[in-house]
Amino acid sequence: MHDLTRRLEFSAAHRLHSSAFTAEENRTLYGVCNNPHGHGHNYVLDVTLRGEADPVTGMVMDLNRLAVLLDEVLFSVVDHKHLDHDVPWLKGQVSTAENVVAAMWGQLAEPLGPLLYRMRLYESAANFVDYYGPGREA
Ligand code: NI
Fold first, then answer.
1. Do 48 and 3 meet the contact criterion of CB atoms below 8 Å apart?
2. Rounded to 5 degrees, what angle do the CA atoms 43, 46, 50 make?
3. What are residue 129's DSSP bridge partners?
């Protein structure tokens, strides 16, 4: 079994703010991340596929195909955008790394099928979230 990872880097703005809380509660909970006009991150996303290498090609998946898919489905939608305003599949959600990575999983679940094993989203060098799909464990 092989774990094959493709890395995608993108820059985007967002603001952590929940309609479930008052303005004051949002400021207390999210701190500087609740800044009214948002702030930016240089995100790093690792998409890991788990599978056997094909006996003929020697590959779990053609990395070029994976790169094109990630570009079309994710990068072109989120890079240099405001995650809260510009990305249809993030509308109505608080754009924490947890929610962003889960929404990104939703975009890749169909094209990658059971090969999709893990998505790791770095919001900064110090903070990252691992996601294994809805209801799944590592
Ligand atoms: Ni942030």
1. yes
2. 165
3. 121
Mapping DSSP to helix (H, G, I), strand (E, B) and coil, where does residue 66 land? Answer: helix
Res. 136: pLDDT tops 90: no
Q: Any idea which residues carry the catalytic annotation? A: 33, 80, 123
62 Cα–ligand 1 center, Å: 33
- Using the structure block, give the residue that is written with the tokens 């799909």: 133
Please give the share of the chain, as a percent, with pLDDT higher than 70.
100
pLDDT of residue 138: 74
Please choose, from the candidates 135, 108, 106, 105, the residue with its C-alpha nearest in 3D space to the C-alpha of residue 120: 105
Q: Are 10 and 78 in contact (CB under 8 A)?
A: yes
Chain segment 82-130, per-residue pLDDT in tens: 999 999 999 999 999 999 999 999 999 999 999 999 999 999 999 999 9
CA distances from 24 to 50, 114, 135 (A): 44, 43, 33
What's the 42 CA to ligand 1 centre distance in angstroms?
A: 10
Distance 56 CA to ligand 1 centre (A): 44
- What global pTM score does this model have? 0.95
